[in-house]
Amino acid sequence: MVFPKDFLWGGATAANQTEGAFDKNGRGLSNVDLMPFGEKRFEVGTGQLDPRQLPEGTVNPSRVAIDHYGHYEEDIKLMAEMGFKVYRMSISWSRIFPQGDESTPNALGLEHYRKVFQLCKDNNIEPLVTINHFDIPMYLVDNYGGWKNRQTVDFFVNYAKSLFENYKDLVKYWLTFNEINMVLHFPFVSSGLTFQESDNRQQITTDVIHHQLVASAKVTEVAKQINPDFQIGCMLAAGSYYPQTPNPKDMWKSILDDRDSYMFTDVQVRGNYPNYYLKQMEQKGLTIPFQTGDNEILAENTVDFISFSYYSSRVSSANPDAGNQTESNIFASEVNPYLESSDWGWQIDPLGFRITMNQIYDRYNKPLFVVENGIGAFDEVTEDNQIIDDYRIQYHKEHIQAMADTIEQDGVELLGYTSWACIDSISNGTGEMAKRYGFIYVDRDNHGKGSFRRIPKKSFYWYKQVIESNGANLSNE
Questions:
Q1: What are the CA-CA distances from residue 398 to residues 106, 209, 258, 375, 474 (Å)?
Q2: For residues 423-442, b (16+ Cβ closer than 10 Å) or e, as one string?
Q3: What's the predicted TM-score (pTM) here?
Q4: Which residue of 170, 235, 333, 430 has the fewest C-beta atoms within 10 A of its own C-beta?
Q5: CB 207 within 8 A of CB 353
Q6: What is annotated as the active site (predicted)?
Q7: pLDDT interval class at 286 (50, 70, 90)
Q8: d(Cα 117, Cα 417) in Å, to the nearest integer?
Q9: Domain residues of the chain, as ranges?
């Protein structure tokens, strides 16, 4: 048996892409509630355009999404039918603290998630909870400056402490921040950041990075005080960079590109800023906003495991060609001519998955948890309500085989695998419903129309077989 007998098979979602119900039971407005569908989405997501400047009538798909809030019982039962051992999900900060700065949490929000976690437990599914998955109350952004303000660290710790105290009997696995390195690429979505022309963007980003790293460490400390058995992980948007050619300049550029992401986990896993980053700050004239005790907080509260998303590898060039870029607008890179691409231009590289896992494990020698992996594709519903998604099965088959090779041949320690997303949801990058990742189809379209009906796809039954066999049977017969 390649996969450990207690390997955690499952799937992943995020509140901001599935939950909806943005105005129910006391929930406050969140940054993603302002993310538009359409041509302005990238401009808003990258902090170049304040979403409050958009015209009335702008479609904000996350406000309704797939109404997982109203359909969680049905959705979790479908996950149980697939045999899930784990369900990775996130909590909406503004559903627990509508403004973010309150001292007392919203009881209705706490009650909702308790029901979700209890239903998971009743179906022998372990919740894996992301405390912050691209989510901040807009009240904090508007009134405090959000993560630019050190005070937000305290608000976040108070929020996390409330979760730990209320769910210590239901949740064991926690992630502090989702894809924490995305502040470099999609800062409004990641952290509620919008920049003005006069702003020193690099210094603001440096401030936010430090505040989030300190917040992650403080939350880890609080978690262990409340329940020493909690397992706390960090979460990285991963995908190794290849040099475009053997030119040493391309090789060096690939190292620098990898470092941009690994800096975050260097701090969360090792407990201190790496020297290359400190030198970089010095050379750019930037200041890390240390306060007394920060070094000790970071050093003493490192994570138990490293979780990450992987969709594709990337290619670095010392002389990038604007006409040779992948279509993926958030993590664009040079096109790799040896790889095929998805409907949205994301290059498919299962060996790159193995390479990435080895690089992370070699770097840190801590257990890994794959918490996002999947392919966005167009799905067609037949007249008899079937979705024959062999392309999705093939993608997951190849990537699960890469995991098996990584465990069996390379000795990498993997805790589990949660596909993204186990049920169709709003695309983070494009805001589309048409870009579908799930094993479960949801009847919603890009314009907010549809019945919300859930339909298992062919991949649903295939993944059920994979879990039943603990990864031994990947056949699509």
A1: 44, 35, 24, 12, 9
A2: bbbbbbbbbbbbbbbbbbbb
A3: 0.96
A4: 170
A5: no
A6: 372
A7: very high
A8: 19
A9: 8-468
Q: Can you name the residues that pair with 462 across neighbouring β-strands? A: none
- Please confirm, yes or no, whether 43 is among the known catalytic residues: no
The sign one gets for the Cα dihedral 102, 108, 112, 118 is positive
Question: What is the torsion angle, in degrees rounded to the nearest 10, for the CA atoms of residue 147, residue 149, residue 155 and residue 159?
Answer: 10
In the numeric block, the tokens 């579908």 are attached to 436
**Gap between the Cα atoms of 429 and 419, Å rounded:** 17
Beta-strand runs (E) in 139-277: 173-177, 231-238, 241-243
Each residue of 185-205: b (16+ CB within 10 Å) or e?
bbbbbbbbbbbeeeeeeebbb
Tokens of 131: 């405390």
CA distances from 210 to 182, 255, 281, 290, 297 (A): 14, 22, 12, 8, 12
Q: The domain 8-468 is classified under which CATH number: 3.40.350.10, 1.10.287.620, 2.60.120.260, 3.20.20.80?
A: 3.20.20.80
What are the pLDDT digits (tens) for 320-329?
Answer: 887 788 876 6
Q: Which of 39, 197, 372, 468 is catalytic?
A: 372
> How far is residue 44's CA from residue 463's CA, in Å, rounded to a whole number?
36
Residues constituting the chain = 477
Helix (H) or strand (E) holding 458: helix 458-468
Residues 306-317: tens digit of each pLDDT: 999 999 999 999
- Euclidean distance between CA atoms 273 and 284, whole angstroms: 16
- Give the separation between CA 109 and CA 303, rounded to whole angstroms: 27
* H/E segment holding residue 461: helix 458-468
Is there a contact between 48 and 153 (Cβ–Cβ < 8 Å)?
Answer: no
**Residue 396, Ramachandran bin (φ over 0: left; ψ between -120 and 50: alpha; else beta):** alpha
Residue with tokens 């990947």: 474
